[in-house]
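User: Second chain of the day. Same drill as before.
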Amino acid sequence: MYRYHQRLKKLYHENSFLVKPDQVIKDRQLIKYWRKKQSLFSKFDEKPIFLTNELWYSVTPEKIAKFIAKFVRTSLPNATKVLDVFCGAGGNTIQLALEFEKVYGVDLSLDHLYCTYKNAEAYNVNDRIWLKYGSWEKLAKKGRFSKLGIDFVFGSPPWGGPQYLQERSYDLEISLKPMGITHLLRSMISVSPNVMLFLPRNSNLEQVSRATMQVLGSQGHCRTVYVKDSGFTKGILCMWGPSLVNAGRENQEVFENVGSPSPSPLKDTVNYDLDG
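Assistant: Same format as last time:
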């Protein structure tokens, strides 16, 4: 534990991973993310933002993170405590903290947790966020969050970097890290019945269906939402729990830009377009 404190102390002392306005991006793979950095965090020009190289391509764009947070707030109006299982740079954690009283964040990287907290300061929500260092698999197995009264669990697990698009059909049991979707869903359901995962746009939805049946039984339901930005599909939201699955059924105008259903092996598929 001592070495973790020393590592954090060093990160704070050196102001590590601060993105500077005149910063020279040496990694060619990151240049395209640098050019659209404003879409990752809208406060880039106003406040200090902190990102490791990995976080440049793994953070959820702010527009999508905001949509997710507002969707969940509308679906679960009485919720107060939520959990972000793979908090990374804090993109989703921050937007959830703008909607809910308390947000727990988990990550296996101290560098990521540090960035989450520093970025939360930029949005003035650091007092609503409680961060935990550790492996989600181990924390879930020990029941670390099962008795905290968590109302909703969100996860945007590592997709394996930009290379995930090289797969025609993304294997959610093999390629998804740190565990396959069945194991991951079971661990999250043990904390709250309301669960949402942000997954690659080329995900194998048959695996989502099988995981739902294995974890929740033949009567289990999963809702899939295709999220688009400027006409391009950015990912798929898969959600479980009656409040999330049935949200907006009676009055779909609660959500902006609802498109026509897209074909899928799962029921309740809706296409949400983020275009204004």
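Residues 251-276 have pLDDT under 50 and may be disordered.

User: Great, on to the next one.
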